[in-house]
Amino acid sequence: MKIPLTLLAWIGNLANAAKSYDPGEMLETNYKVEKIVHGFEQHPANKNEFFDWFSEETKKGFTPKQFEAFRNNYEYRTAGTLISVMQTALHLAKRGDYEHLPYVSQNAREEGGGLSVDGSKDPAHMGLCEKAFNMLGERVFRIPPIDIPDIDPNTLLPEARQFRESQEKSFEDKGNKLIGRYLAHEKAAPDMLYVIEDLFKAYKGYFSEEEYKEMTQYFRAHIPESREEKSGVEDRHGKDALLVAASAMYRNLEAQKQIIEGGQEMLDAQEALWQAMKGYMTEIGNENERVRPERVKLTPGITAKDDQALTPKPNAQFPKTCGSLSYLNLSTSKGNGRG
Which pLDDT belongs to residue 326? Predict the structure, then answer.
C-alpha cells in the first residue's frame, strides 16, 4: 500500500514529539481526511459555472460597473481570510496542539506580513490585493482607487455579507468546525486565484513590465506562474491544513463530523456568492461598454502612464463619477434586494 506523503510528514511530526501513536489508526485517519478533502473539492463551490463564465467573459472584457462589482465583493469576501486563520491558530493554542500550531501560525504570518531579521517588511496579502485591483481599476476602467475598509456597503451583494457572517459565526464554535472551514478554504484557493489572475493578464498591455510585475505581486505571493507547478504558498497551506485536520480527527470521531459540517457551511456560502456574482455581473453587463482586453507593445523606456497614446482607449464613455456603485440602484434591480 502506498502511503501518502502527507501522512509520512504527519508521522514524522508526531515521532519528533516523542508521543505514542498507533500507525494503523494514523493511516486510517489520514485516508478519512483525504476522503473529506475529495468531497470538498467536488462541491459545487469549487466546480462552479461562475469560473467558466468568468474566464469566457475575460476574453471579451468587462464594463467598469462589472469590474467594480467584482472588486468590491471579492475584496470584502477575502478580507476575512486573515482573521479566520488567526482564529484557527487561537483555537489550536487554546487546546494545546503545539505540534500543529506552527503550520497555522506560519499561514497567518504569510497572510498578514511581517518584519524580517534585516528589517525588511513583507507586505500583508490583502494590501497586495488592494493594490492590484486599484491599479487595474484606475488604469483600465478609470475607477478611482479605494481602501477595503471604505468599500460602500450598498455595493455588496447579500451573499457576500452572508459569507462573512457565516465565517464570523464559526469563530464562536468551541469544536472543530473552524478547522473544517480552514481546510475547505485552503484547498480551494489555488484554482480560484488562477481564474482571477487571467483577468489581469488580459489587460497586461495597459502596463509596462515593471508596473505589471508590481500589480501581480498578490498572485505571486500565493501561486506560481505555472498551473502545473504545485510549489506555491497556497498549495503548501492546503497540505498544512490537511495535517491540522488529521490531528484533530485522530481518535476523535466527533471531530470528523464537525470538520465536515464546518467545511460544508463555508462551501455552501461560497457557492451562493459565486452564483449571485455571475447573475449580477450578467445583469449589469453591457456589450457596448466593455473595455476590450487589447494588448499593446510599449515603447522601451516609456510606460503607458507616461505615454497616453500607447494606452488602449475604452470603447465607450465612462461615467463622470465611478468611485463607487452608489450611482446604481442596487435595491431595485429586478427585485434582487441588493443594497
Answer: 32
Q: What's phi and psi for 290, nearest 5 deg?
A: -65, 145
Supply the pTM of this predicted model. Answer: 0.78
Burial-class residue 59 by CB neighbours within 10 Å (0-12, 13-18, 19+).
exposed
Domain count, the chain: 1
Q: Is 319 domain-assigned?
A: yes
Measured between alpha carbons, how far is 216 from 238 in angstroms, rounded to an integer? Answer: 22
Cβ–Cβ contacts within 10 Å for residue 108, how many?
A: 19
Torsion sign over Cα 23, 185, 81, 168:
negative
Q: Residue 61 is placed in which grid cell?
A: 472584457
Residues 243-260: pLDDT tens digits? 888 888 876 778 888 998
Tell me, yes or no, whether 163 lies in a domain: yes
Question: How far, CA to CA in Å, does 221 sit from each of 205, 218, 242, 243, 280?
Answer: 22, 5, 21, 22, 29
